[in-house]
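Hi support team,

I've been running sequence recovery on a batch of backbones for a student project. Most finish fine, but this one hangs at about 90% for roughly twenty minutes before it completes. I'm not sure whether the input is malformed or the queue is just slow. I've pasted the structure tokens below so you can try to reproduce it. Let me know if you need the job ID as well.

Thanks,
M.K.
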């Protein structure tokens, strides 16, 4: 066999081995060990806070209505007293830009702390693992239970665990749908077993997604499905805060009795206990360096600090740090926060967020959109007249009804035909008003001229109307 054939065969075998190893890793179940410490406490604070916000927000009222409601049927979004319509897509674009640059800024400073403490996947995985520990026991007990043959006790234990998981998942699905359907009426319909087909589908679908992701897939979502794990590399630099193992202090690692003078024996502080691996929710060994699977949760820090306490060694063998600090300066994290990349992200974020706040502050209670009906545009009705047809979409954002008066200006001798005025518009609704504008042909040259539509929107029974103007084009054939 030629060298080329040998090389091809070895390459195929190597690729097959890599794929097999990856598939084996997916099949292998992790048994993270419970850990206590500052980071574990903070993780639970974020679990409780995020769930309080998620489950509590749909039940809040604002001016007698659900404070946050994405009413897709009416094509309106109710947000803390503000109503957003499809034409307010600009605000959605600005929101996405703010979120993207917030992600860039936060990641450049603090790495993947979002993943470890506030990401829904991490939060629900933490919650589901807590239920699992309460029902089946900690790491050793769970491993032992899974290896046992099927017995009535094992079936009961597994049934209790999965029953609690399903209950949490369905509650999550119900709350998710409550952001799109008024949650109080949804709860009444659920109690009467009269929930609509779409609501039922999304409750079950979102509940199943929560159950599968947090109960079964867990770290596989972070390692193989989440794009952020792959994108983090381009947002990190030498001054980004990450979880790091102090190799200079820890190596060479090795087991030893507590009474041994490990420095005299030529050993580092790491006793190679493996606690950092056992508590890691993604199953990595942080001592091998920063890996894309690391979600920055700090469980390995808490576990390692406990071992350092027992051995009488200083804490911080594994800690939050930066590459620059580990290599050069023990005190440089805070000073390096204000670096060019961070300042650029912060400046862009400030400009975009400030502009969005200004637009929102200046947003009027009534919006006017003039659409030129091109099908009927420039149609002559009798010889000296030219007629253009427009459709005026008028949106009343406030809860109170208004009356509209429409005026057109910009050309001499115009005749305006529309609905009888004033035109009523209900609160938080839109109205499509057709308007015909006629001008004598001899008064205008062929081409395009500019005209202005002025709408005065009166609150019923009150003076001082809100006035808006919109420019349009009048076409002469």
């Amino acid at each position: 066999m030629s060298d080329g054939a040998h090389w091809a065969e070895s390459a195929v075998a190597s690729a097959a081995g890599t794929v097999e190893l990856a598939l084996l890793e997916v099949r292998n179940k992790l048994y993270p060990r419970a850990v206590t410490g500052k980071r574990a406490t903070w993780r639970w604070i974020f679990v409780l806070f995020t769930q309080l916000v998620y489950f509590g927000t749909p039940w809040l009222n604002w001016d007698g209505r659900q404070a946050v409601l994405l009413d897709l049927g009416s094509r309106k979004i109710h947000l803390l007293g503000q109503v957003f319509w499809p034409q307010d897509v600009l605000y959605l674009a600005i929101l996405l830009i703010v979120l993207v640059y917030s992600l860039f800024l936060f990641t450049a400073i603090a790495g993947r702390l979002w993943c470890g403490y506030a990401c829904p996947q991490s939060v629900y995985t933490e919650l589901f693992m807590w239920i699992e520990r309460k029902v089946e026991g900690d790491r050793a007990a769970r491993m032992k239970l899974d290896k046992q043959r099927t017995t009535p006790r094992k079936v009961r234990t597994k049934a209790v665990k999965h029953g609690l998981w399903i209950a949490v998942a369905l509650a999550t699905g119900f709350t998710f749908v409550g952001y799109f359907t008024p949650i109080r009426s949804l709860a009444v319909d659920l109690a009467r077993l009269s929930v609509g087909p779409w609501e039922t589908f999304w409750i079950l679908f979102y509940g199943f997604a929560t159950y599968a992701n947090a109960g079964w897939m867990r770290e596989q979502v972070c390692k193989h499905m989440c794009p952020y794990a792959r994108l983090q590399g381009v947002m990190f630099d030498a001054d980004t805060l990450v979880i790091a193992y102090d190799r200079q202090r820890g190596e060479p690692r090795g087991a030893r009795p507590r009474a041994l003078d490990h420095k005299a024996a030529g050993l580092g502080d790491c006793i190679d206990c493996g606690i950092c691996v056992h508590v890691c929710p993604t199953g990595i060994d942080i001592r091998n360096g920063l890996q894309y699977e690391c979600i920055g949760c700090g469980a390995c820090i808490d576990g390692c600090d406990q071992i350092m306490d027992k051995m009488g060694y200083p804490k911080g063998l594994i800690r939050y740090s930066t590459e620059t600090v580990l290599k050069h300066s023990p005190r440089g994290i805070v000073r390096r926060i204000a670096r060019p990349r961070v300042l650029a992200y912060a400046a862009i974020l400030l400009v975009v967020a400030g502009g969005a706040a200004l637009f929102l502050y200046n947003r009027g209670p009534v919006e006017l959109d003039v659409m030129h009906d091109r099908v009927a545009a420039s149609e002559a009705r009798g010889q000296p007249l030219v007629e253009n047809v427009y459709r005026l979409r008028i949106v009343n954002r406030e809860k109170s009804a208004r009356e509209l008066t429409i005026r057109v200006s910009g050309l001499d001798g115009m005749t305006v035909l529309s609905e009888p005025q004033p035109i009523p518009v209900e609160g938080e609704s839109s109205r499509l008003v057709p308007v015909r504008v006629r001008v004598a042909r001899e008064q205008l040259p062929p081409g395009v001229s500019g005209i202005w539509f002025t709408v005065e929107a009166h609150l019923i029974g009150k003076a001082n109307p809100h006035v808006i103007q919109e420019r349009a084009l009048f076409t002469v054939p």
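--
Follow-up from support: It reproduced on our side and the slowdown came from queue contention, not your input. Residues 1-30 form one domain. No action needed from you.
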